[in-house]
Amino acid sequence: MKRILSLDGGGIRGVFTLEVLVKIEELLRDFYAKTDPEKAKTLVLRDHFDFLAGTSTGAIIATGLCWGMPVKELRELYLKEGRKMFEKVSWRNVTDKLSSLYDPGPLSDFLKRIFVEKDGTVATLASPRLRDGPKKNLLMVVVRNHTTGSAWPLTNNPDAKYNHPDRPDDNRQIPLWQLVRASTAAPVFFPPERVILGGTESAFVDGSITPYSNPALIAALTAILPGYQINWPAGPENLRLVSVGTIAFSSEVPLGDPKVRFGLLAARIPNAILQTTSALMQSIGWQQDFLCRCLGDCLFAEKPEGELLDTEVGNLLAGNVLSCPPPGRSWFSYVRYNRTFRKKEMIKILENDPALKRIDAVNAIPRLSDIGKQYAEENVRIEHLI
Q1: Could you give the maximum distance between any two Cα atoms of the chain, in Å?
Q2: How far apart are CA 311 and CA 273, in angstroms?
Q3: Residues 6+ apart with CB under 8 A from 4
Q4: Are 140 and 230 in contact (CB under 8 A)?
């Protein structure tokens, strides 16, 4: 069986993702200890998953995992460096202050320190280190090419059409730190990352403003569809897709709430713009999850108390006669880990931690960690992973 690990975008809320991944790594080490105790002690997630995909903060984590880093090491870096990643732009730099809230320098420096070759040279997407694990891993990093107006889910697959070494614009020549920084360049929060490829300069921005803030489906399609030149066999017995989110909050607005007035005046207000963007991103994320449940055998997914993914079709869980995927051959087996806060529960948690909803909620890092640990303990199971 081939296995894909897909990680959502969500800024500093990636701390939640990391706590889920810590649990996954612990369970896998316990599982493999039954057959190879010594090897299991040093097992990292790239030893189990063949393909790691990430968007934005998920791109940082996925690339670190593909680099061979243990999850706990990545988590410590987030806990230690998280505040530095969101460092306000100095008022002395008026140009940058007008273009973004945060200085990209600390995040770029953080990524440059990690993604270097053993000889000190800058690592690129073609780095052998990404593929020197037992799985010869594939990596996907999702960015948006702002210059061409298109989503770029870039991989290190040596057989991909735009990854041929004879091409002057071989995508794998992009410095790894720069590609990951580009995937995190959320508009307003960070400026675009300018990348030169084949003599052409492009502005790359956050992959979360593409349809692939949740990159699970595009990763699975990349593995299966012939045009992407990976050609893994489809079928739930052949391909397992494990997707991890970054906490979700309902974008519902009660009737009578001032936020419901989406007029021209409201559109000029920054908070209204952010609210609209958040609602669109939540809808896209929901749709990606919905499609994965339709195309795959959904072994596990979040099941909010008393709620369904969709009131007409249910939760689309495999084996449920009244709420199962469409008839026909499933392309993969699917597991989705995420924690969604809705209605009264959302209001309550945001009263105590109002910043929790934001991607730059650095003051909420301890709370994000606690939520992730509790969720992982209650929901992550070894049978979802093997």
Answers
A1: 64
A2: 29
A3: 49, 50, 51, 52, 53, 216, 219, 220, 223, 239, 240, 241, 242, 332
A4: no
Please name which of 269, 230, 21, 47 lies closest in space to residue 136, comparing C-alpha atoms: 47
Residue with the bigger pLDDT between 202 and 315: it is: 202
**CA torsion angle for 365, 76, 10, 65 (degrees, to 10)?**
-160
User: CB–CB of 219/226 below 8 Å?
Assistant: no
CA distance linking residue 346 with residue 340, whole number of Å:
9
State pLDDT tens for residues 307-365.
667 778 778 887 776 566 677 889 999 999 999 887 778 888 888 888 788 888 888 89
What's the sign of the alpha-carbon dihedral 319, 325, 327, 333? negative
Contact predicate 207/151, CB 8 Å: yes
- Residue 201: count other Cβ atoms within 10 Å of its Cβ: 9
Mean pLDDT for the chain? 87
Q: Which of 376, 378, 353, 384 has its CA nearest to residue 12?
A: 353
**CA separation for the pair 44, 38 (Å, rounded):** 13
Q: Are 78 and 7 in contact (CB under 8 A)?
A: no
User: For the purposes of burial, counting CB atoms within 10 Å of the CB of 266, is it exposed (0-12), middle (13-18) or buried (19 or more)?
Assistant: middle
pLDDT, one tens digit per residue, over 26-50 is 999 999 999 999 989 999 999 999 9
CA atoms of 5 and 139, how far apart (whole Å): 10
**Which of 6-10, 165-169, 340-344 is the least confident region?**
340-344
